[in-house]
């Protein structure tokens, strides 16, 4: 009998139909986003309570079975990919908002709550949760990848918005981290250690996250530029001069073409910034004026903005659909998203190099991203049956990472290491720092059972 | 020959006069702030380069000698207290600003740079570093205690303002953490693990920290209230309604009395908020109007504000001197500062309980603090020869911690655990979470040589 079969004996009785072993059921949990080959989990568990998670983890450890935590599988670097002989733990059913405390600008959620469901729940409070990856991801997944999105330039990433967690450790122990206070100097910062750990240290079963007031005025719109460089220079100067923009997204002409076709927009195929400003009516007007002054020197067209929330929703829906829009450019295509983030002063150079490298390789790839953070994505649009294209994409990706690291940037701004960036992690931090991460991993997960094969290269 | 004597043989030759063994020299490094008994280090090392730190750490590990990192010793919980048989490592001589990169809103410093020296160095750039504990502490010490100060309500604490570190591990290995990018999802968040670790995991030899633009307009002043509750309610509503105040400090009547006497102010002895607003001229006016509307319902007097930077400097100098001012209330007194931080909605109740408990115990103790963060301090003013007073202070402190923990707060908002809060850490996070912290400690510092006796209770 295999380890997994032994675990099944214990857990099937406990979870019933929520211990899924038949192929049709398991096939729904392949975490198939992104360019990594998606594996079929050998078994999928669907716990509903903290106690069930604790029991599962203790039993898995007892049986020596590996565990892969799973939100809704939208991560892009194979972060939640199935592992042979392991149990994938689908947390999407633990999706209750446990508490909203508007008076403390926070809420407490189970890990399977999605960002859209949370904001729906918050609607009546005048508060919102700002982190918005393009997919409707779970909070547990977003915490685990240290996700961000279009609002991070003003509101920070998951790193800045998680106050505390409850985590089940590999042996089934439940621990709290952090507190409900805005700051604390009490001991090691376990909250930030688990945030971004991609399910390799423990399973997050509860999170306390910060909320923000819905701004009095929201002004949003698009801004066309003569050239890519002018658009990026405008972003750089905006950040440098401290204009508190809420969103500042770049779409290059190829990205605009993709979005026009996919979302029915009619934007000119030129480098374009999608901008949003938050504040009082007076302050958003002030910010707009500051932006226009900056753009004027950089070949900006008219900054067309609107206060209409419905128009704004359409705009951001189109932006969020950029990845599927890219994929739709070619029949049966796969997209491969890079995730470079550089210090803001290096952004123009980074994006110019990216465009040149993509074109030199003859690849189809919109470039876009959360440029206010210095974070941009190249979406390679590839056919599965084009090995030469894949090899070229791989080479361009490595080249862009090398440039980013040479200027103090990072190989991943928000997608995490997963399977795809394991070698890059070593290049970025060096062998000694990664060895230290491994020592921490071994101290918390001595059996190496939490999401194996992610973050660290097999030896 | 003792371990320390063996280490001395190696290091004295290397560091010369910077390996201090004579008593008069060592006596200058007793880290005697706060209420903890200050010990005399057995030896003090003063490395000047990263290589010297690496050599020292490797040699100390080889000799089995413990190491106590030391900034300027202003921490308040005995965090940097000397340890028998250990070497205290004075880092105040590693005090170069290595790089200022205004275009990326960051700078790179050695650990011994003080906050005032850094801001002096930044003067010409239009940027500043906002974190300002009352003492002129070092960046290395501030990172290690996860310090904050009056500006944290708007600019965050050290947690939000450190982008990356270079750390020498107990075996002498040098590792980098973080990057110069604003965000990264690359591997475990070692930056935040070392931030707040109080010298128990490694020695920070370099830090990359965020800078902020000096605001166009700064409006600051004092605001008197009829009662403590009205002042605190005003703070609570201000935070809840998202007014982006830069500083919002409370001084109760006893604190005002102390500051009047010490700093030559003439403020009425009533609960008073010290407030500062940052933004455009228009926006600070807007913020002020919002504040006045909030205060009106809570017994506020006139909000007296000024744009004059010199007047503002006097104001904040007086606020920063609150601790010595309290000490000066009684001849030969010692102050003991508590450091509770609660969710903002619980602040009024927390402070009311603190005042009642202090008065019931018949103690002299100003109450003040960074109330915009939910963080307040009780400064017990005690004579060394008053054991009954000390015992009462201890009891009140425990009582206030218990209340804070019962509402999801923390026993320390910014001073750290040091020696004084080790039992409270266990009450706050529970034995299992603290056991996990110990496992991390053992993984990084297997010999237990980094700042022993801090954060964790001896077993
Ligand atoms: C169209 C599209 C657009 C995107 N845009 C963005 C973007 O703008 N910004 C961005 O940051 N990302 C973006 N992503 C990537 C993705 O949405 C994020 O990585 C997201 O955080 C994944 O959440 P998930 O719920 O799908 O998690 P999963 O993919 O299921 O899991 C992600 C990781 O978290 C771990 N995990 C999940 N839940 C838990 C838990 N409870 N405890 C412990 N570990 C757990 C998994 O093991 C895995 O390592 C996009 C993806 C798509 C498809
Ligand atoms: C009058 C007064 C007012 C204060 N007000 C505030 C306040 O408003 N906010 C606040 O947060 N604090 C405040 N403090 C406390 C104190 O200033 C902070 O704790 C500060 O962070 C200590 O810095 P330091 O350089 O003195 O460090 P030290 O006291 O020398 O050391 C502090 C800790 O950091 C470790 N350490 C120091 N340098 C390094 C390094 N390079 N690598 C690794 N570990 C290191 C030490 O081992 C120790 O554990 C105040 C103190 C005083 C006396």
From TrEMBL, chains A, B:
**What superkingdom does the record give?**
Bacteria
Presence of keyword Oxidoreductase? yes
Q: Which UniProt keywords apply?
A: FAD, Flavoprotein, Oxidoreductase, Transit peptide
Q: PANTHER family from the entry?
A: D-LACTATE DEHYDROGENASE, D-LACTATE DEHYDROGENASE, MITOCHONDRIAL-RELATED
Q: Supply one GO molecular-function term.
A: D-lactate dehydrogenase (cytochrome) activity
Does the UniProt entry include the keyword Transit peptide?
A: yes
The record's family statement is: Belongs to the FAD-binding oxidoreductase/transferase type 4 family.
Q: This chain belongs to which protein, by name?
A: D-lactate dehydrogenase (cytochrome)
EC number(s) given by UniProt: 1.1.2.4
Domain FAD-binding PCMH-type intervals: 37-214
Gene3D superfamilies from the entry? 3.30.465.10, 3.30.70.2740, Vanillyl-alcohol Oxidase, Chain A, domain 4
In its UniProt record, which GO terms are filed under biological process?
lactate catabolic process
Q: Which cofactor does it need?
A: FAD
Q: What Pfam families has UniProt attached to this entry?
A: FAD-oxidase_C (PF02913), FAD_binding_4 (PF01565)
């Amino acid at each position: 009998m295999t380890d997994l079969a032994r675990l099944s004996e214990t857990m099937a009785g406990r979870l019933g139909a929520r211990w899924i072993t038949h192929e049709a059921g398991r096939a729904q949990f392949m975490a198939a986003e992104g360019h990594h080959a998606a594996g079929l989990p050998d078994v999928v568990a669907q716990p509903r309570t903290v106690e069930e998670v604790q029991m599962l983890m203790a039993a898995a450890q007892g049986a020596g079975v590996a565990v892969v935590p799973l939100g809704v599988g939208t991560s892009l670097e194979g972060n939640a990919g199935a592992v042979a002989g392991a149990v994938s733990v689908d947390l999407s059913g633990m999706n209750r908002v446990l508490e909203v405390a508007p008076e403390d600008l926070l809420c407490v959620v189970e890990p399977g709550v999605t960002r859209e469901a949370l904001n729906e729940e918050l609607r009546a409070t005048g508060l919102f949760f700002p982190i918005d990856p393009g997919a409707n991801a779970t909070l547990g997944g977003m915490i685990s990848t240290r996700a961000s999105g279009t609002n991070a330039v003003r509101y920070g990433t998951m790193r800045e918005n998680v106050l505390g967690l409850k985590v089940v450790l590999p042996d089934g122990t439940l621990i709290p981290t952090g507190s409900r206070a805005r700051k604390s100097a009490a001991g090691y910062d376990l909250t930030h250690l688990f945030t971004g750990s991609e399910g390799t240290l423990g399973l997050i079963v509860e999170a306390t996250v910060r909320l923000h007031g819905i701004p009095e005025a929201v002004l949003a719109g698009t801004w066309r530029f003569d050239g890519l460089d002018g658009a990026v220079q405008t972003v750089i100067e905006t950040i440098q001069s401290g204009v508190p923009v809420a969103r500042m997204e770049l779409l290059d002409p190829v990205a605009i073409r993709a979005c026009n076709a996919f979302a029915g927009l009619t934007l000119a195929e030129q480098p374009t910034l999608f901008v949003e400003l938050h504040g009082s009516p007076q302050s958003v007007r002030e910010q707009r004026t500051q932006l226009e002054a900056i753009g004027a020197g950089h070949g900006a067209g008219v900054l067309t903005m609107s206060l209409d929330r419905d128009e704004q929703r359409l705009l951001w829906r189109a932006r969020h659909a950029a990845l599927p829009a890219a994929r739709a450019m070619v029949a049966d295509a796969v997209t491969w998203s890079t995730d470079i983030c550089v210090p803001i002063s290096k952004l123009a150079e980074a994006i110019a190099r990216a465009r040149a490298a993509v074109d030199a390789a003859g690849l189809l790839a919109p470039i876009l991203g959360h440029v206010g953070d210095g974070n941009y994505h190249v979406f390679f649009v590839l056919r599965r049956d084009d090995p030469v294209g894949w090899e070229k994409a791989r080479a361009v990706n490595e080249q862009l990472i090398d440039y980013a690291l040479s200027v103090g940037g990072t190989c991943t701004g928000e997608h995490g290491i997963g399977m795809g960036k394991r070698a890059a992690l070593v290049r970025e931090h060096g062998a000694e720092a990664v060895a230290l991460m491994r020592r921490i991993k071994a101290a918390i997960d001595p059996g190496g059972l939490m999401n194996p094969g992610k973050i660290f290269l097999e030896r």
